[in-house]
Design goal:
By secondary structure, this protein is an alpha/beta fold. Among the domains are: 13-102 and 125-149, no CATH class; 524-839, Rossmann fold. It has 33 helices and 22 strands. The strands form five sheets. It has a nine-stranded mixed sheet, with helices on both faces. α22 (597-612) crosses α29 (759-769) and α28 crosses α29. The two termini are 45 Å apart. Residues 1-44 are annotated as: Disordered. It catalyses: [(1->4)-alpha-D-glucosyl](n) + phosphate = [(1->4)-alpha-D-glucosyl](n-1) + alpha-D-glucose 1-phosphate.
């Protein structure tokens, strides 16, 4: 193709389906009187020639370069915008159809959306992969090279954000009316690097090369207020009212991301908010020479959407987190009321139009915000506003850890959000009267249930506020929901047993099987036919093939190909060369003590110590590669020390000729969705070893099982349901269950007793403590060793021997590859339950009560 052929004529934007979505959001009165305004134009043709033309148009007139002079990033951006163009027409068609037949919708409020790369997902949803591949070949471009050019959006941290991304994918696939709301972090979660084995955080500037999947609407700004004070006044009707006189304001600028359903023509919206100053630049101050002061307000405002989860160990950090949380829910609720709904909406009908799902406690400040709008802007009395608000929210609790249930000091709330603090006091007063009526004379219960806590300082308990105001409260796995009812929120479940329910988490099979594991997907389709990607229950049809020797051989071939792929990825990405022929043992998740990465490490040190001491014949050891992937929160010292210890042990084991070919540890930095999509399909063994009663659910455990890894795990979170579904013979169970954990802790746990009575454990810990893995520097590991021996909050030493015994069973099972393959196939066949489509059906049936489809 010549350069002149690569430049094509321009076309009016309107004829290319670019009518802005905001022209259609408030009803016909906002649409221009033009034939194109009645609805979106047709989707571009699904042909190779049509795709080439659209791609070159974007390259020429979007990037301003001819093909012959375009960079890789130019080509990627042009490709992304071309695919986005195919989605845009469907997006507008979806909005038009829903506007014509409005139904109750979901506003999914989440501080995180861990989306992963968008290109492949969009190509899959539009069934354009083959066409795009051929079109690019005709232009002399390799689609795989453009895939690698894409930067993953840094909008989430871990399971919470990954779950939110799965859920909005499923809602689009089910044609459920939903808008996801969140923050457009400029830097998102940090990029993790290792320096001398220690974690170092650097900014993840994921927008540095452009954001082709977002559509900004700066003209649809939302004012957000902070600080100041409130004042009382008497209205014309003689009723006393309150107005909030803010101290400072920012603007919320919205960015729309399209969320396509799987090959169904439906495209929903993810709406993210960026903070901008109301007056970004002071020319007078600038001309006076004070350049920093001239842009001070801009810098101050933009800090709000700068970084995901700013370090909150300082008062300034805490305040910034609360600013973030209020900012995004204030923008989102305002957007729904003022921009998404018709202007003649009667707010008394709000519960028939919206249910806001609170994804953990981060968005809970939205409850008093809706109350403020109803009372102060819509002039409703408190009782009426409270009755409406209590029908508009539902709350998902994602934790069992008390420290993860957010609280905000009253003093901070009064300073930053004075009107909201007043409303919270009003809500609490009414609520505590309900408690006293239900449990007369029980003032201790009243104190426990109060939204306002007194110790160690007066503070707002956000989980309590969410529970009081929500129509439903759900946990995310059967065990988690039970513990939520029985322990974490037991007073509330006793008062409102009907309010509590369970929705076990799920993952999207589009990204985490079909997209991430094309080899397995092809084998499944060749075996049971098409349709399973949107109906994961059909994986049950694979069960009979577990007994088929030929199918087992093909299944092993898939696993081998996936191991080759991850080997190439880690070599290119991290310079890590994985040994071949090993059992691939994977533990990837956020670094937190309750997840017990130290237990996995002790197992590897035990294997290593046994070989180098001569007690174990190396020839009898199953070759094993362990891959860790984890980020530690910047202020989490023990997690960072654990990372250093893992890297220290890895450095020694990987370079000791005595265990060469037998043991290897890989810890690639900056584990993210993109790496997960390559690593999970290759895994043989999935490590899910949290202390029973601490992990809410987990979703990594589901992804591994769906991709044919066997699980070694405790009876915790969704592990319980995985084991029940796949069967005890296809799951390696170890450790105490939750009642046994509670009993041991009640009696008074003494970790040193386990250290002293278990020789293998003692030798493993002593080897670490000797400085063997840290060049003789015992001080470098003293924090971790001291914590294990004298604290061990998550009972690593108590579960050690059970874990070692279970790992011996793993080795014995892996030696019989036919039996292992049979178990792995049954894991795939029996875990279709963990589709996020099923999770969404549960939310729809049990909580939201919305309609899907037209």
């Amino acid at each position: 193709m010549t350069e002149s052929q690569a430049v094509i004529s321009a076309q009016p934007a309107a004829s290319r389906g670019d009518t802005p979505s905001y022209l259609h959001e408030r009803g016909p009165s906002f649409a221009p009187k033009h034939p194109l305004a009645s609805g979106p134009v047709s989707t571009p043709p699904h042909t190779v020639d049509g795709f080439v033309k659209e791609f070159l148009r974007e390259l020429n007139y979007g990037q301003g370069v001819p093909l012959s002079r375009s960079s890789l990033n130019d080509q990627y951006l042009a490709l992304a915008r071309t695919v986005r163009g195919y989605l845009t027409a469907r997006w507008l068609q979806t909005a038009t159809r829903r506007r014509q037949k409005p139904h109750k919708m979901v506003g999914y409020l989440s501080a995180e959306y861990l989306l992963g790369r968008q290109l492949d997902n969009a190509l899959l949803a539009t069934d354009l992969t083959a066409i795009a591949d051929e079109a690019l070949k005709q232009c002399g471009i390799d689609l795989d090279a453009l895939r690698q050019a894409e930067i993953e959006p840094g909008l989430g941290n871990g399971g919470l954000g990954r779950l939110a991304a799965c859920f909005i994918d499923s809602l689009a696939t089910m044609d459920a009316p939903c808008v996801g709301y969140g923050l457009r972090y400029e830097y998102g979660i940090f990029k993790q690097t290792f320096v001398d084995g220690r974690q170092v955080e650097v900014p993840d500037n994921w927008l540095s090369m452009g954001g082709p999947w977002e559509i900004p609407h700066p003209e649809m700004e939302v004012p957000v207020h902070f600080g100041g004070h409130t004042e009382r006044y008497v209205g014309e009707d003689g009723r006393e009212r309150t107005r909030w006189i803010s101290g400072w304001d920012v603007l919320g600028i919205r960015y729309n991301y399209m969320v396509p359903g799987y090959q169904n023509g439906v495209v929903n919206t993810l709406r993210l908010w960026r903070a901008r100053a109301t007056r970004a630049f002071d020319l007078h101050i600038f001309n006076a020479g004070d350049y920093a002061e001239a842009v001070r307000s801009q810098t101050f405002a933009e800090n709000i959407s700068k970084v995901l989860y700013p370090e909150d160990s300082t008062p300034q950090g805490k305040e910034l987190r609360l600013q973030q949380q209020y900012f995004f829910v204030a923008c989102s609720i305002y957007d729904f009321l003022k921009h998404t709904q018709p202007t003649d909406l009667d707010v008394r009908d709000l519960p028939e139009r919206i249910i806001f799902q609170l994804n953990d406690t981060h968005p809970v400040i939205g409850i008093p915000e809706l109350m403020r709008l109803l009372m102060d802007d819509y002039d409703l009395p408190f009782d009426e506003a409270w009755a409406i608000t209590r029908q508009c929210f539902a709350y998902t609790c994602h934790t069992l850890l008390p420290e993860a249930l957010e609280v905000w000091s009253v003093s901070l709330m009064e300073r930053l959000l004075p009107r909201h603090m007043e409303i919270i006091y009003m809500i609490n007063e009414v609520f505590l009267e309900e408690v006293r009526e239900a449990f007369p004379g029980d003032e201790l219960r009243v104190r426990r249930m109060s939204i306002i806590g007194d110790h160690p300082e007066r503070s707002v308990r956000m989980a309590h506020l969410a529970t009081v105001a929500s129509v439903k409260v759900n946990g995310v796995a059967e065990l988690h929901s039970q513990l939520l009812r029985d322990k974490v929120l037991s007073d509330f479940s006793e008062m409102w047993p009907e309010k509590f329910t369970n929705v076990t988490n799920g993952v999207t099979p589009r990204r985490f099987v079909r997209q991430s594991n094309p080899n397995l997907s092809k084998l499944i389709t060749d075996t049971i036919g098409v349709g399973w990607v949107a109906n994961l229950d059909r994986l049950r049809e694979l069960e009979v093939y577990a007994e088929d020797e030929e199918f087992r051989a093909k299944f092993r071939e898939v696993k081998a190909l996936n191991k080759e792929r991850i080997t190439a990825v880690l070599k290119r990405r991290d310079g890590i060369e994985l040994p071949q022929g090993h059992l691939l043992d994977v533990m990837v998740k956020r670094l937190h003590e309750y997840k017990r990465q130290t237990l996995k490490l002790l197992h590897m040190v035990t294997l290593y110590e046994g070989i180098i001491s001569g007690e174990v014949d190396a020839a009898t050891v199953t070759p094993r590669t362990v891959v860790f992937g984890a980020k530690a929160a910047p202020g989490y010292r023990m997690a960072k020390e654990t990372i250093f210890l893992i890297n220290s042990v890895a450095k020694v084991i990987n370079n000791d000729p005595r265990v060469e070919g037998k043991l290897f540890i890989a810890f690639p930095a900056n584990y993210n969705v993109t790496l997960a999509e390559r690593l999970i399909p290759a895994a043989d063994l999935s490590e899910q070893i949290s202390l029973a009663g601490k992990e809410a659910s987990g979703t990594g455990n589901m992804k591994f099982a769906l991709n044919g890894a066997l699980t070694i795990g405790t009876d915790d979170g969704a592990n319980v349901e995985i084991r029940q579904l796949v069967g005890d013979d296809n799951f390696f169970l170890f450790g105490m269950d939750e009642p046994a954990v509670a009993e041991l802790q009640a009696k008074g746990y003494q970790p040193t007793a386990y250290y002293e009575s278990n020789e293998r454990l003692r030798r493993a810990i002593n080897l670490i403590d000797s400085g063997h893995f840290t060049d003789g520097n015992r001080e470098a590991v003293s924090t971790v060793i001291g914590d294990l021996l004298y604290n061990d909050r998550f009972l690593v030493l108590a579960d050690y021997q059970s874990y070692i015994d279970a790992q011996a069973k793993v080795e014995a099972a892996y030696a019989d590859q036919e039996a292992w393959s049979r178990s792995a196939i049954l894991n795939v066949a029996r875990t279709g339950f963990f589709s996020s489509d099923r999770s969404m059906r549960d939310y729809i049936d049990r909580i939201w009560h919305i309609k899907t489809g037209s």
